[in-house]
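Narrative summary of target 7.
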Amino acid sequence: MKTNILGFPRIGGHRELKKSLEKYWKKNSSYNELQQTAKLIRQENWKFQQELGVDLIPSNDFSYYDQVLDASLAYGCIPERYTELKNNGTTSDLYFAMARGIQTDKYDITAMEMTKWFDTNYHYIVPEFSKDQNFELFSSKAVDEFKEAKALGILTKPVLISPVTYLLIGKEKEAGFDRIDLLDKLLPVFFQQLVQLVVAGAEYIQLDEPCLSLDLNAKEKAAITKTYKKIAAEFPSLKIILTNYFGCYGDHLATALQLPVHALHIDLSRCPEQLDTILNAKFYNQKQILSLGIVDGRNIWKNDFEVSLIQLGKVLKKLPKENIWISTSCSLLHSPIDLNLETNEQTLPKEVKQWLAFAKQKVKEVCLLKKLLNGDVSDALLEKVAANKLANQNRKTSTLIHHNPTKKRVAQLTKNDSQRAATFTSRQLVQQKALNLPLFPTTTIGSFPQTKEVRKWRSQFKKNEISQAVYDQYIADETEETIRFQESTGIDVLVHGEFERNDMVEYFGEKLEGFAFSSYGWVQSYGSRCVKPPIIYGDVYRSAPMTVKWSTYAQSLTQKPVKGMLTGPVTILQWSFVRNDQPRATTCQQIAFAIRDEVVDLEKAGLQIIQIDEPAIREGLPLRKAAWETYLNWAIESFRISASGVKNDTQIHTHMCYSEFNDIIEHIAAMDADVITIETSRSKMELLDAFVNFKYPNEIGPGVYDIHSPRVPGTDEIAHLLTKANDVLPTRNIWVNPDCGLKTRDWPETKSALINLVNAAKKMRAKVSVEA
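Modeled conformation, tokenized:
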């Protein structure tokens, strides 16, 4: 019997990678210093797992930015616009330019597109494919890191994204071909990489194939069969671990069970029912190893050993121990690193903490389950089993998790709770009269740069080093300065800047009941961007206003409209660690009523425009389309509950970023937001096609400034994008805005970009006026 870890967090226990990356990007440190930080993180991760006795320790699970981008570089899948940089620049400059764009005296190149990794909040860099795409082995990262671990005396299991999944999560950048047809060109390069790994001494290869949790057509399924048969033929001694996660194999199970692989990994956290199906499947060869993903890699709740041992007992009746591996359900990339760092009982009460396990604790759970199955009855182990049982029992009986008025409110939910009083057509006329905005009204998505100074003051306040009055005065000064900047720039609808907020979900969680918080529970979202998801452990409700103070203060400073800024219920749900003892739909409805109460209070306080951000609606979709309708019904209803308590002349905005909308556009329209803002700059307005083809009836702000890149778009560049939008959308329905909030940007680039954005809007108004 072996233990198998699918991947480990790469940011470092104290976000060492984030800090080192940002120093390097700002030219405050060398690439060599960045490499040394990365090396220390990798080696610490490997040694931690080695000391616990993990049998299959992953390598190549580390990345400076994103594992999909790593694969694109490895296979030489580098878009043409980077050719000069590829030929004349450094590999590190090329890598980060693909991720973030680059703007220097010599280069001005836009970044590649970014989207969500399946149904997680992790963002990956989308591979770009052309009809005549060629591949070449360009990077030896996977081999280098395997050798690095081997030099420490640790024989790791390299983790690679399967060629099929890699192609399927990419994008054709021209019409007339199917990206899966590139497989024959990609496989020889992929095999070159395998040869290098075998020569270096690799015995096992973990091939990540999460596309097996999706709906695939016959051609795509055939590509999977072809790939694994060719690998088996070319590398008969290599032990391939076929790794699917985030869902069931479903109707791909027969295909997967007949592939010539050494081990088959199954996610028993997301799909426990598939265990019986596999064990009883006529195609299952019981000589094939099952890697049982029984410890949840996506959530933070402690494993229930009693439940896990029942599941494992079923397998032991069918298979010998040597054909069973105990594993995490997926990579621990999606988990915080170490629960032992959490010592603040004010934000994470001791009673809640006992129910949790972070990445290091999950690795220990995997190893403990193996010992239990191997018959270890030592006092130390039995003590840990007893503690696990007690913690899980305590959670079930805790009084912390229940709030009866909230349960009653959700139980009494009616259709009227999710309906605006009038149709959008009627509301639009009333709102145009009330707001009196020009054509191509300009706004931003909410946050402005969170400088070191802002973060320092917040930290000092949290540590009680400064008083509430001193802190409030600082926030007031920052807010007023931001309002004045927006006024001077000519932005039409202002925001207060959100300087009092740490994170768009964490901030609201701190003000709602039913949430707990970690101090070091950071999880990578993309690149150096890390989030600290709140923990929803109980019933959620609002006990007091959350945003009214600073929104009304900002509105008092200006005659222009200021947007109230809220995070929507689905996004709060998706970007939190959610309780698993009741349906997610119920928790979402609880959050929706809490946000509704805040919306109503903002309207009463005089805010005419309120934005309820829902960037995670698309992300929350189940991976199989058969389950979409159920999810979308309660998700869209939850948004509408939050937005439907206001009058017709109050304009409701929502924001979504880095999502494909074609297949859910009807549901996006059903949200009935007066204005939706979306990301479209990296795709050059391609993501707008769904709204155009559907004839989306409401107002829309297609993003024209990529805030995930430090480059500043010029006025003509923005005007060009707006012209493309104006060619296909009604002029009166178009807003002008960045792709997302400006929190991660610096002030100089932000100011330059927003000045260009406003000038582009003015240019469009003049153009439309002349044409009229």
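The domain at 2-67+129-397 is CATH 3.20.20.210 (TIM Barrel).
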